[in-house]
Amino acid sequence: MTSPTAENVSTGPRYLPALVLLFVGSGCAALIYEVVWFQMLQLVVGSTGVSLGVLLGAFMGGMCLGSLALPRYVSAEKNPLRVYAALELVIGALAIILLGMIPLVGGAYLAVVPSGTASVLFRAMVAGLLLLPPTMLMGATLPAIARSVEATPAGVSWMGFFYGGNIAGAVVGCLLAGFYLLRTYDVVIATFAGVGINLLVAALAYWLSHKTDGLPETTPAPLAVSHVASPSLANQRHRALLVAIGMSGFVALGSEVVWTRLMALMLGATTYTFSIILAVFLAALGVGSAVGSFTSRHASSPRVLLGLCQAGAMLGIVWTAHALTEQLPFWPINPSLATDPGFVFQLDLARALWALVPAPLFWGASFPLAVAAAAEEGQDPAFLVGRIYAANTVGAILGALAFGVVVVSTIGTQNAQRVLAVTALLSTLVLLAPIRGRARAGAVVAALLAILLVPGIGPVPELLVSYGRYAATYDPVNALYVGEGRNSTIAVTELDGGIRNLHVGGKIVASTEPQDMRLQGMLGHLTALLHEDPKSVLIVGFGAGVTAGTFVTHPGIDRIVIAEIEPLVVEQSSAYFRDANNDVLADPRVEVVFDDARHFLQTTDETFDLITSDPIHPWMKGAAALYSEEYFELVGEHLNEGGVITQWVPLYESTEAAVKSEMATFFEVFPDGSVWSNTYQGGGYDVVMAARKGGLTIDLHRFADRLMSPDHSYVAMDLAEAGFSRTLDVLGTYGGSADDLIGWLSDAELNRDKSLRLMYLAGLGLNQYSASTIYSDLLEYRTFPQGMFRGDPQRVAILRDQMGFR
Length: 806
Fold this sequence. Notes:
- The protein is an alpha/beta fold.
- The N terminus is likely disordered.
- The protein is built from 27 helices and 14 strands.
């Protein structure tokens, strides 16, 4: 066996900072791709917690395989900088290929896979096949460049700086993609930005390969076999070290999953919030890695320091748990005072820094310390870095999947954080307990601290689950139920007077308040009454079940399908809103599909007479996919002739640009569409967009006779309870047609899959309360639709007067 000599391996101190710069670029491109690929793949495999966990596992799994494969299959005789340049070039090429491959493979996948939980394994295979090649190459970059340094304390410290540089670039890439590239452009432009960075990195690496005394491509000078550490023997000697660094990765990613969920409750689950959380987490890892790299250069026992880092991470977990449940929710902050998005982002960044930083600092320091602890003279640096990185990544994969799919929904975030803290303690004991003296004493102290502090980790406050970012502005709530599901955290509360609210992700999504009952009634009854004789209906989003419950009162409907992403919503709404939703789940015509609604439509051949959607607010990450042009086209394909679609559009907690995007996109697919208004205290509140396949005309005489007929008596009663006491009241909510609003929508940005523009527009307006202004601007363009309403002149005149036309 031969290995490069120390002289051949060394790149030279003056060029090592340039290698760190290479990793900054690689990390930036990698995070741009990760954000882009996840956005694209969610449209194919759905946005459930299981799907997202699978995507993250596939992404990190590829990186793990790459870190192990490179030192085994790429000769140490190759110039490391030229290998690195080749990897970057191929990553960029694969990124371009994936732009076309994801939709194509997604189409093939959707043609054969059923909807529901049973499709998860197939989703995993699809995601893995798509992400495996580029992520393996990403994982190979660190061991590739590791061959540019020696396996000595000074050399391995630079590996930590490389790792830290990679994380620093990831922070830049995360913010660049989330706040600029995807907000301003689309996945195509974002991808080519990443490719451009890959090309620059590859060019710099190739140039450096000629400027340094890096490893030549000729056969290196031989080194005695006895001086070279066998990878298998090294693995045996450092088994405890590998276990500990794997546990560190498990705890780090598990914590990220739990904390992201809790922070999203507090800050609002916009795409910008997730970018801020990820950026803060990565930045802390990067700083910790830099400190760990510097420390490892002079440390007499890196293993002891690594063990102490795990104890520090345990304390950091306790700190963050305390900050998220007992501090931040009660800071005296009213978000509605900060209507400028820039101020909102500053506030969110400050709170994320306060809560999240401590533990990631220790996790960041762990990697370079683990490399230093495992380093042996004569060892191939690629094998050294590869196996440490792989162990850490395997742990991270298990942590992301376990906590994202199983742990939180089974035992809740309180116990999940306790498990994470105890696991961090165990990694401390694995490293320090076998060492006599002060190290073992440190292990005992860590165990005592865990006994004292871990039981004090509290539950997520009911007020935070109920009112999210507005928790500090509300009095204690009467919570009938609080629970954490696989995809969402929900609560059911009751106010004075018996009003009940359903909260999902810190946001009221349904209630028995008059204005909400009116909207929920409109989404059901208006949809059914615009059809001549409906037989089947699909409801997207269960909420409190009130919209679904309206359809059980309509005679002739024999099939009601409900698509809901979170099982806990259906379970608890059926228990606490039974009177309001006509006990809809007890009706034998009802079938509930627990899946992403878009994914359900993509994987079913069934068509419907009625499809109504009441998804969560468009600013919540993932919801914009249910307002895209492609989604509306998909809905149109599943409508029978004469079928009716309705879609909820909130005017509150939104901006005019977001509302225009929603309407313009809907009318792009349904040019004969119309708008129907749900007002509150005389002003705008929210609206319902509606369209009928084949065009919409309403015979007022038949409409009135239908509601007055005996078989529609329950419909009339239900409408009256929702605030529509007269037969024409529901038609009096007409707010305009697509033709009316052409001028108002002239500057609207369409929401398409490749950009999901709405997600970024709506995310800027979650603290905006300009519903009345938006509604009044919309009404300026409204005209009375002479061709839509037909009947005797007197009845038309009554309706015209009811709409406010003179």
